[in-house]
Specification:
Shape: elongated
Number of strands: 25
Largest sheet: 6 strands, mixed
Number of domains: 3
CATH architecture of the largest domain: Orthogonal Bundle
CATH topology of the largest domain: Neutral Protease, domain 2
Number of helices: 11
Radius of gyration: 34 Å
Structural class: alpha+beta
Length: 566
């Protein structure tokens, strides 16, 4: 078990060596590459830990990077005692068993080493003293990079884990890494560095390579080792308490040969829950940012493929096939509009149909991250899931929608399960949309100083050049797109019809025609008095912008046909 730098480029080979170490490695001595070292002449102790280190900067003993001062050794002890107080004292995990070495000293041994000498990114390693089902252990800390509260808390939790249950198969060590990283995040109050490299969501929860290769992630060692999936444990412990993690390891200890997934399922069953429901709940939290923990909620979801723009006209979008492995999910992003922002903004609906793989008990969810939005569960009927949600053709800045396609199966062969997604956009051209909600009013402190705003918006009018009005209802109605706040003044010929306020985005504006103008409109549609001029104004009305025009005519009244005499 190892602690890695985040955003790592290379896989950690040393971690594989560590977890494969057997009883032949004695707890009292240095581990791994440090077997070549001439020794650790210095020790510094605290009530629960003993740090072994050297302070010789010459190459005659050990690599210079391993040399630390007594003050630095004290830093390690301080971090370790703080983590011990939290993990064992506050959170109630059992103290590790005594290794009984060094003259009966029951303290946990920490060796200061050069774990990162080969640029693996390893900052700490926990070495088991024996084999399954449980064992004592010691810790290697890289100097100087590994001397940090996060590394020490992570490695200490490994020692606690191994004292309860060490899985027989190294492929199950994903459970150890994920929970140790969760505990380190919790002990250290969730610093921002813990969310710098989360995901990807389409990696199986239990993905772990037992032979030290990069099968889970070719480029990112932090994800490949299982560390990046620690938020799952934040999710499940929000439901059942932080002691739930101990319940998982106790279940494994009672059933030494089982997998990590089986231990997790057994602990969930004791709470009347299933892993499928718990896993789907977590994927929704990731998508919508509903942990209630700011550092996690602000993380932008990682999508599969390219974002899909739904367009500005009614249409059924091409079907897409999304393969998803077991205990993984994929998010498909949908963006409103066509991305240009130049088209009219109308209300619409988006209908989604997901054909799910047979035998996969999935429940897709849809979420748009707009104001006050909540995840929407698709209605499931057999292998089909559907939903119709409010939509529009506006171009929104920073707002995205996600379709969550979880595969909660625990069957390790239920991989590459294909979800087929079909989206249909239905536009209502009679209902103008709005591409942004008005901002909340700011809190004003002190006196308010009036400031004139003479900014004039640019306006665009959608519709035909000639507007035909019904004689019985002579009202001019237009869909107008504005680039900002302001007003618009409507003039028909030389007659002012009125002035109305407009806002950014789509505006539905209407002006009634006085009866005195109707006769002129009936006679001609080309005379000057039939020209409708729309002039944009600033919010104060003091400045005017470039006007736009349309022609107006009254539609002829259809007379009923005369009946012929029979």
């Amino acid at each position: 078990m190892a602690f890695l730098r985040r955003s790592l480029v290379l896989c950690v080979v040393l971690a594989g060596a560590a977890v494969l170490a057997g009883p032949t490695l004695a707890a009292a001595g240095p581990r791994g590459a440090d077997l070549l070292c001439l020794g650790y002449p210095n020790q510094l102790g605290s009530p629960h830990f003993l740090v072994h280190y050297m302070s010789d900067n010459t190459p005659l003993s050990c690599d210079v990077k391993k040399a630390i001062t007594e003050t630095q050794a004290g830093d390690i002890l301080g971090y370790a005692e703080d983590a011990y107080a939290a993990e064992i004292g506050t959170y109630g995990f059992p103290a590790p068993p005594s290794d009984g070495v060094l003259g009966g000293d029951s303290r946990i041994d920490i060796y200061v080493t050069d774990e990162d000498s080969s640029a693996t990114g390893t900052l700490g390693v926990t070495w088991p003293d024996g084999g399954p089902p449980s064992t004592t252990a010691s810790i290697n800390i890289d100097a100087p990079a590994g001397i940090s509260p996060a590394v020490v808390a992570h490695e200490l939790f490994h020692v606690i884990q191994l004292g309860i249950w060490l899985p027989a198969n190294p492929a199950e060590y994903w459970l150890l890494e994920e929970t140790a990283e969760w505990m380190s995040a919790k002990v250290n109050q969730y610093p921002d560095s813990f969310v710098a490299d989360l995901g990807p969501t389409d990696m199986a929860l239990d993905c772990k390579d037992a032979i030290g290769t990069n099968k889970c992630d070719l480029k990112d060692g932090y994800a490949n080792g299982g560390y990046s999936r620690w938020p799952f444990w934040q999710s499940v412990t929000q439901l059942y308490g932080h002691g739930f993690v101990k319940e998982v390891f106790l279940h494994g200890a009672a059933n030494p040969g089982e997998t990590g997934v089986a231990a997790l399922q057994g602990a969930l069953a004791a709470h009347g829950a299933t892993l499928a429901d718990t896993f789907i709940n977590w994927t929704v939290q990731q998508m919508a940012g509903t942990y209630g923990l700011t550092v996690l909620d602000q993380v932008k979801p990682k999508i599969w493929g390219a974002a899909i723009k739904t367009g500005t006209t009614s249409a059924t979008l091409p079907a897409i096939q999304v393969p998803v492995n077991h205990l993984a999910t994929r998010l498909v992003e949908f963006d409103r509009g066509d991305g240009s922002g130049a088209s009219a903004c109308f209300a619409a609906t988006l209908s989604l149909t997901v054909t799910m793989p047979a035998g996969i008990a999935s429940r897709p969810y849809f979420y748009w991250n707009g104001l006050n939005s909540t995840p929407v569960a698709l209605a499931v009927n057999g292998t089909t899931a559907t939903a119709t949600v409010p939509w529009d053709t506006c171009t929104w800045s920073g707002n995205r929608a996600y379709l969550n396609l979880p595969n909660p199966s625990t069957d390790p062969t239920a991989n590459g399960a294909v979800f087929t997604v079909v989206a249909k956009l239905t536009v209502d051209p009679n209902s103008p949309g709005q591409s942004a909600a008005p901002p909340k009013p700011a809190t004003v402190i002190g006196p308010v100083i009036p400031v004139a705003d003479d900014g004039v918006p640019t306006v665009y009018v959608f519709g035909p050049e000639l507007l035909r009005l019904q004689a019985g209802a002579p009202i001019v109605r237009l869909v107008l797109l504005s680039t900002g706040e302001g007003k618009v003044r409507a003039t028909l010929g030389s007659t002012v019809l009125g002035t109305t306020s407009i806002r950014p985005g789509g505006n539905d504006i209407r002006f009634a025609l006085p009866k005195s103008l109707l006769a002129g409109l009936r006679r001609s549609s080309s005379a000057a008095n039939n020209v409708l001029t729309l002039t944009p104004l600033s919010s104060t009305g003091a400045a005017a912008g470039t006007p736009v025009t349309r022609r107006v005519a009254i539609a002829p009244v259809k007379k009923p046909a005369k009946k012929r005499a029979r």
